[in-house]
């Protein structure tokens, strides 16, 4: 090899090494930090406050679930901290309307829950795909669409639901139209003493992460911490979807949930319920590895974050996603880790 090619080879070798350092080292450092964030003793008293929730599938309002199913569910949640049921009553149409045929047995369900499970609140879970990353979907920038969403919320509250729970995705950080919608929804729910709750995206694990990802891919996974706080101040209850995190290992996932819990606690008002989501489902894809995103890790991570940031906070709980995909081990890990 002559001197010229030796020089080229050396430069190429250093370029490759530099690329490896740029790409790999931050990942290793971040992974190590998350794993360390999952260590330490759990603080005494960081257990159930009786303010947990669970997302329930559409079968509960379309006739597939029967009285026997409700009795079995009541037995299942006895002795847990579950207080709120997010029952899928949608989805919304892209124009914000909600056909009544979507939830034909809603009134029967609400009445049955109130009769057999005193103290349990039933929320209408409404959602739709937003036209933020594609041509089709609900458009929050349209005032008529937002007005229709408010009318749909009024419709389900008139049916008897104790509250309304919104899950609109993908919702980009700093969406002023979403905040406007929440203001209008609050004006509806407050006089009725109904609960307004939302499913929330995760918070930037590093400042500006949502902007960086958006610039590269056109898709934003996270919200800024400031925007999360703006949303939390407008609702009665905010449930973080702390799953589908891309984490490959259980220790990293648990540390990530601990971090998310702390970030959310820092900006959620004391008069708003903050719930951290638990993965009661089992899939293996790029976003979710079931061997990593376990209920046990999520519960421990939430407890660590709570203990480090606001251990005396009463308006805090866990939200279980989702009933129809849960396994016995998920319920057992929830009970053993949180109660």
Structure characterization notes:
- This protein is α/β, with parallel strands linked by helices and 339 residues long.
- The chain has 10 helices and 10 strands.
- The strands form 2 sheets. It has an 8-stranded parallel beta barrel with strand order 1-2-3-4-5-8-9-10, surrounded by 6 helices. A two-stranded parallel ribbon has the order 6-7.
- α1 packs across α8 and α9 packs parallel to α10.
- The N and C termini lie far apart (69 Å).
- Residues 2-25 have low confidence and may be disordered.
Gist of the model:
The protein is an alpha/beta fold. It is built from ten helices and ten strands.
Write the layout of secondary structure elements.
Layout: H1 3-37, E1 52-56, H2 67-77, E2 82-88, H3 106-116, E3 121-129, H4 143-159, E4 163-169, H5 176-192, E5 195-200, E6 202-203, H6 209-217, E7 222-223, H7 225-232, E8 237-240, H8 250-267, E9 273-279, H9 295-309, E10 316-321, H10 328-338
Parallel strand pairs: 1-2, 1-10, 2-3, 3-4, 4-5, 5-8, 6-7, 8-9, 9-10
Q: What is the CA–CA distance across the termini? A: 69 Å
Q: Write the element-wise H/E pattern from the N-terminal end onward.
A: HEHEHEHEHEEHEHEHEHEH
Class based on secondary structure composition and strand pairing: alpha/beta
Q: How much helix, percentage-wise, in residues?
A: 40-55%
How many helices does DSSP assign? 10
Radius of gyration: 22 Å
Average predicted local confidence, pLDDT: 92
User: Can you list the strand order of the major beta sheet?
Assistant: 1-2-3-4-5-8-9-10
Percentage of residues in strands: 15-25%
User: pLDDT under 50 segments (min length 5)?
Assistant: 2-25
What overall form do the CA principal axes indicate? globular
Task: Please report the total strand number as a whole number.
Answer: 10
Describe the largest sheet: 8 strands, parallel, barrel
């Amino acid at each position: 090899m002559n001197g010229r090619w030796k020089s080229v080879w050396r430069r190429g070798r250093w370029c490759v090494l530099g690329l490896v350092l740029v790409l790999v080292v931050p990942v290793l450092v971040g992974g190590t930090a998350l794993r360390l964030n999952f260590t330490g003793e759990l603080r005494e008293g960081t257990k159930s406050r009786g303010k947990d929730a669970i997302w329930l599938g559409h079968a509960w309002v379309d006739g597939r679930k029967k009285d026997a199913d409700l009795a079995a569910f009541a037995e299942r949640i006895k002795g847990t901290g579950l207080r709120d049921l997010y029952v899928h009553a949608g989805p919304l149409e892209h124009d914000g309307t909600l056909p009544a045929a979507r939830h034909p047995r809603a009134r029967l369900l609400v009445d049955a829950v109130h009769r057999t499970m005193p103290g349990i609140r039933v929320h209408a879970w409404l959602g739709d795909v937003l036209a933020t990353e594609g041509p089709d979907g609900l458009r929050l920038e349209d005032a008529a669409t937002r007005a229709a969403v408010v009318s749909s919320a009024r419709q389900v509250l008139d049916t008897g639901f104790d509250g309304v729970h919104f899950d609109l995705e993908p919702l980009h950080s700093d969406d002023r139209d979403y905040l406007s919608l929440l203001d209008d929804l609050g004006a509806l729910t407050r006089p009725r003493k109904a609960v307004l709750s939302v499913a929330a995206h995760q918070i930037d694990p590093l400042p500006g992460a949502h902007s960086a990802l958006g610039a590269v891919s056109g898709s934003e996974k996270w919200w800024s911490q400031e925007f999360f706080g703006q949303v939390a101040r407008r609702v009665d209850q905010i449930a973080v979807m702390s799953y589908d995190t891309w984490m490959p290992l259980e220790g990293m996932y648990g540390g990530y949930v601990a971090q998310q819990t702390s970030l959310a606690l820092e900006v959620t008002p004391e008069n708003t319920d903050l719930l951290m989501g638990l993965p009661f489902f089992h899939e293996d894809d790029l976003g979710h590895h079931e061997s990593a995103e376990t209920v046990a890790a999520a519960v421990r991570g939430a407890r660590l974050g709570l203990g480090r940031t606001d251990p005396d906070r009463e308006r805090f709980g866990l939200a279980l996603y989702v009933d129809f995909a849960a396994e016995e081990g998920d319920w057992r890990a929830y009970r053993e880790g949180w109660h």
